[in-house]
């Protein structure tokens, strides 16, 4: 008697599974190279969209470190084709890639002792009034800061550039029902 609790997948159907192995009759979508001779039905559906020489081998889709994307184009989006890979897992921004912006800096020299506070607030100072600024030594109050006070900083290290994700495995059905296109 046939088990009817599970439906039979279409060949080439891709599903997400939360375990670290593909179910029987499935393979991870990890770009593996398969022999056409042993997987003729799947090759007839995928062709060489994901790689392979098309004579003896073809490749499965590769979702390792990737997210799925619909083919075509949308308003304001780049056009995508089936099998195309794009994006980066991490990126290092250069000064030319950052939008133009400023870092305004204001220091208040509050002479009224009643208006001094230990945290930033309107009209208050974090330091006692002096004849010169603590940031520009030996200068009278209201002196302009050095133009080099705020410069680019950092160590040119890449940062994470991936969307939020959940660790699941994409798997493709190697066996099942051949889909009808009529």
Q: Name the helix and strand elements from N-terminus to C-terminus, one letter apiece.
A: EEEHEEEE
Taking pLDDT < 50 over at least 5 consecutive residues as the criterion, the unreliable ranges are: none
Query: Which descriptor suits the 3D outline?
Result: elongated
User: How many H/I helical runs?
Assistant: 1
Distance between the termini: 31 Å
**Main sheet attributes: strand count, strand direction, barrel closure:** 3 strands, antiparallel
Helix content: under 10%
Structural classification = mainly beta
Mean pLDDT: 80
Biggest sheet: strand arrangement: 1-7-2
Radius of gyration, taken over Cα atoms and rounded to an integer in Å: 30 Å
Q: What amount of the residues lies in strands?
A: 5-15%
Number of strands: 7
Structure description:
This protein is mainly beta. The protein is 4% helix and 12% strand. The radius of gyration is 30 Å and the shape is elongated. The protein starts with 13 loop residues before the first strand and ends in a 9-residue tail after the last strand.
Structural topology:
Elements: E1 14-17, E2 26-28, E3 33-35, H1 40-46, E4 57-59, E5 90-91, E6 159-160, E7 169-173
Antiparallel strand pairs: 1-7, 2-7, 3-4, 5-6
Task: Please give a quick description of this structure.
The protein is mainly β and 182 residues long.
Brief descriptors of the model:
elongated, three-stranded antiparallel sheet
